[in-house]
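Fold it.
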Amino acid sequence: MKTVIFVTDGDLASKKALEHIAKELNCQVISASYGNPTIIEPQQLVDLIHQQKDGIPILVMFDDCGIRDIGFGEEAMQYIAKQQTINVIGAVAVASQTHAKEWTHVDVSVDRFGHLSQYGVDKEGLFDLEIGRINGDTVSILDDLKLPIVVGVGDIGKMARFDDVKRGAPITKKAIELILERSGYLEPDFETDDI
C-alpha cells in the first residue's frame, strides 16, 4: 500500500517548495505531475506512485489552471483516490483567486505566519472570513473524496515570500507535518496536539 498526500497546486514555486520539503520530512515527491495545468495521464501517475519506495509518504501535485468545474487535476485526484493499492492520508488545499468560485471544506488552515485556525485562508495566506472552507481552482473534488484531513494554505512557495523556498517553505511544510502527524508518521508537535 502506497501512502499519498495530495497537493492542489502544480506551478514551479510549488514544485520547488515540495521538493525541498520532501527531503526534510523524509517524503517523496512526484514532480512529473508538475504543470499548470497537470497534463500527465492519471494511470501514468498511478504507475509512478507504485515505483516509489514503500513506507515513505509521497507528495503528488495537481493543478487545474482555473478550469471551471472538474478539471484535469481533479480528475486525476479522483482516479488515484479510488485505487485499492493507494492510501491518501490527506490533502493540502491551496487557495487561489479563481474565477470559477470553487471551494472546499478544510479541517484546519495555516496562515502565512504559521498560525493555525478553523477559518480558511486566501491566496496571500491571510485568514478569511469563512469558517472551515477555502476558495481555489483545484479543490472542489476534495469534499467528495472524504479524506482524513484537509489543510488549507495560501499560494505555495509565495504568500508575500513568507513561504519562499529560500526560507524552507515553512507554511507548506507545517501543513504537510499536520497531515503526517494525524496519520502517525510524525510525533505530534505540542502546538498541534488539539487539531
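DSSP finds five helices and eleven strands in the chain.
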